[in-house]
Amino acid sequence: MELRHLRYFVAVAEELHFGRAAERLRIAQPPLSRQIRDLEREIGTALFARVPRGVELTPAGTAFLPEARLTLAQAERAQRSAQRAAKGETGRLRVGFVEAATHSGILPDVLSFFRAHLPSIGLSLFELDPLQQAEAFQDGRIDLGILHSPPLDAERWLRVEPVYAEPVVLAIPKSHRLGGRARLSLGGLADESFVLFPRHVEPAMYDGIIARCRAEGFSPRVVQEANGWHTLASLVSAGVGLAFVPRSISSFQQAGVVYRAVRDLDVEMSLSAVWKRGERSPVRERFVTAMRAVAGKLSRSARGAK
Amino acid sequence: MELRHLRYFVAVAEELHFGRAAERLRIAQPPLSRQIRDLEREIGTALFARVPRGVELTPAGTAFLPEARLTLAQAERAQRSAQRAAKGETGRLRVGFVEAATHSGILPDVLSFFRAHLPSIGLSLFELDPLQQAEAFQDGRIDLGILHSPPLDAERWLRVEPVYAEPVVLAIPKSHRLGGRARLSLGGLADESFVLFPRHVEPAMYDGIIARCRAEGFSPRVVQEANGWHTLASLVSAGVGLAFVPRSISSFQQAGVVYRAVRDLDVEMSLSAVWKRGERSPVRERFVTAMRAVAGKLSRSARGAK
DNA sequence: CGAGTGTGATACCTTTCCGGTATGAGCTGC
DNA sequence: GCAGCTCATACCGGAAAGGTATCACACTCG
Predict the structure, then answer these.
(1) Could you give the residue ranges of the DSSP H alpha helices within chain A?
(2) Hey, is the C-beta of B61 within 8 angstroms of any chain A C-beta?
(3) Cβ-nearest to A281 among B47, B59, B74
């Protein structure tokens, strides 16, 4: 049995007339008769009763008709379903992301965009550090990662696309003498203590900061390293030292910490989307596109506020 | 798109290997590759990603797989549905019947049989007199009739199959002098008044009664005609006269009426199944078969009780 | 690094079967 | 009883499915 048989059967059942049905199907009447005969033979029972002025449905045909229609409709649904998935309008996306994707605002905004415009896409979210993301990719547990920078050896099989960057500011304990100044220069920080993130988390930002300090004639004294921007902020709050952090952290208003822009520090924190090389996924492409759009809007509104 | 494409697609999606899928499908690998390619072209997107060690499903393929399975399952269900209808295991039957079908017990028993053994058959029941049944057949409102005897002109296009017969007894007002006798002879009824059903309702029974009376040397004095066995019984109860009725009526115990067998009155009331000539309906055939079985059981138990 | 193996794709041929044309058989209605 | 309508049958040509041989590519392993 093929869908052709069902299409022909439905046409005859609707016209109750082989000639008209054949016309509607754009074929001649004899081949139609033969296809129906073949279908009846395969099912093992007559579907039509041949009567003088055309045909009638037998009880078997009457039972078959709605089921045949359902089958044809289901076949069409299958086709449309594949096409929608190919266009990225449906499907499932598993996203691993670092903490900064949340507080930069990019992830929440993309999520609300997807919920509003593409509700039939299922999203699974996992907060994972870069190393965990690399593992998750290898195990096939996620389709997209959001991080600052992938583990060094992972660049070979991961495609990395920068999507967002935001300025770096200095986090200062409220009681610190520098907290009062509205604007600081980098050169004035030569004698301070710093808490810093591990270089591998965001090498570009790390190297940029070190290079700018060198240019000002000093090497920052790092008294502690720590993972996670919020952790860094709480160390600052505890008075351990100053910290360079992405500006969006400042919106969280950690008690005992103030944030200041630093003149001469044109360094940015970046966020990139990463995925397995050579893996095509329309949903992921849509997600990355949405991320870029959201990133653009965020950057513009930040500049406007400045 | 044809079901063949779906069958092939599902096989490849399950094996993730063209060679093994082809083997399972009992075809060679190249034609399978081509069918899949044709399917992908028709849908407009790749369903498989060709990778070194076989193939993987693309997002479109992943979305397509369950829908394709549903389509194939639905096609099978359609086929089975037609086959079940052809065997009379499913479908709908509209039955018109005269009152006697109910009180003879044959209709209630067939109904309970159907509900127990063939629950997926929908039954629609209409109490209709023979004339109404003939009209309902012509309008296509019923598929089966149960009556004593069809209208005269209807025998040409109706098939009539006797399925049941039961003895005729005499209904007598309780106060009547004959009510006391255990057994009556027909000859002793020559001077009585009778209420009788119209001849066309059941000509065989009518003629049989008249002929038996003639043989006993009298012609029954009919003081009133009436339709419906219960109506007849209530006229008897009112003292209008005696009435010949089917024995099963006696089980209703109409107040003021007693029923007596009459010696020499070997006449029966018959019930027949009727349907449009040349119309094949497996459900109707099953119903008639069930009616015959029930009728046999009823006759045996009645004889046993006698 | 090169031969070997396994995979799907391509080329080409054979066979099946779908669709077309011509015609027949059966019933209806004038 | 004959015209007219309807579906079935017979037969033919061509599209398309399936088979065989072979290629291209990539990974593997010595």
Answers:
(1) 3-15, 18-25, 29-43, 59-86, 99-103, 106-117, 130-139, 203-215, 229-237, 282-305
(2) yes
(3) B59
| Res B279: pLDDT | 81
Note the pTM of the prediction, 2 decimals: 0.82
Give A162-219 pLDDT, tens digit per residue: 999 999 999 999 888 777 667 788 888 888 899 999 998 888 899 999 999 999 899 9
Pairing of strands A257-260, A158-173: antiparallel
Q: Model confidence at A306, in pLDDT bands (50, 70, 90)?
A: very low
- Residue B123 CA to residue B186 CA, distance in Å, equals 42
Q: Residue A184: left if φ>0, alpha if ψ -120 to 50, beta else—which one?
A: beta
Contact A77 B67 (CB under 8 A): yes
Of B99, B254, B71, the closest CA to residue B169 belongs to B254
Mean pLDDT in residue range B207-212: 92
Residues of A in contact with B282 (CB under 8 A): 59-60
- Cβ–Cβ under 8 Å, residues A163 and A272: yes
**Rounded Cα gap, residues B2 and A3, in angstroms:** 5
Select from B2, B85, B91 the Cβ nearest to the Cβ of A2: B2
